[in-house]
Amino acid sequence: MQPRNLKWLSTALSTLVIGTLAAVPAIAKDETIIGKGSTASTVDIVNELKRRGNFHKLLDGLSIAYNLDNQLKGKGPYTLFAPDDKAFSKLPEEDRQSLFGNPKRLSEVLNYHVIKGERLNCDAIKMQKSLKTMDPKHDITVSTKDDEDGKSDLYVDKAKVKEADINCSNGVIHIVDGPIMPPLAE
Questions:
Q1: Domains of the chain, CATH where assigned
Q2: pLDDT digits (tens, 9 = 90+) for 12-31
Q3: Using CA atoms, how far apart are residues 138 and 4, in angstroms rounded to an integer?
Q4: Which among 129, 116, 130 has a CA at the least distance from the CA of 80?
Q5: Pairing relationship of beta strands 139-146 and 152-156 according to DSSP bridges
Q6: What is the torsional sign of CA 101, 162, 127, 45?
Q7: In this structure, are residues 179 and 88 in contact, taking their beta carbons and an 8 Å threshold?
Q8: Bridge partners (DSSP) listed for residue 168
Q9: What is the pTM of this model?
Q10: Which of 37, 40, 59, 84 is the most buried (most CB within 10 A)?
Q11: What is the pLDDT of residues 151-184, one digit of tens each?
């Protein structure tokens, strides 16, 4: 190669390397890739519940129920139907105390809120009639009902999904307006 071509090639390569290095910090700070607008999350299900701040009863229950909270921090994927504190307050106080005082029963109830091995969004759930839960004895019944505006609301058993498709690193959360209870053992 002639010296003139080498100089041009050297300049072109230098420009390419400098341009690439200059773009890396801009990409890392891009809010559309990482941050508020992102659909991906680096937060697991349990930490997302903590971050939201209105799931104290559920988080207490997950901890009491044979460390179900540690499982929901794991790899997953999981689909969780999460009753918030307001939803738990719909249970009579006596029933709530009895449930939280019996770790075995609490574990059964909370396992009934979890689908293991699948990250199901709202649309995928609506296509099902029932879902297998981590409670091996019972499935959740899925239904939809049209509201006054003609919008189709999703129900799991008798609980309405108030907020759907909260993506987490190891699954998805759907907030429900009440705890869902497996049928009583006969």
A1: 45-176 (2.30.180.10)
A2: 445 444 444 444 443 333 33
A3: 78
A4: 116
A5: antiparallel
A6: negative
A7: yes
A8: 171
A9: 0.76
A10: 84
A11: 889 999 999 999 999 999 999 999 999 999 998 6
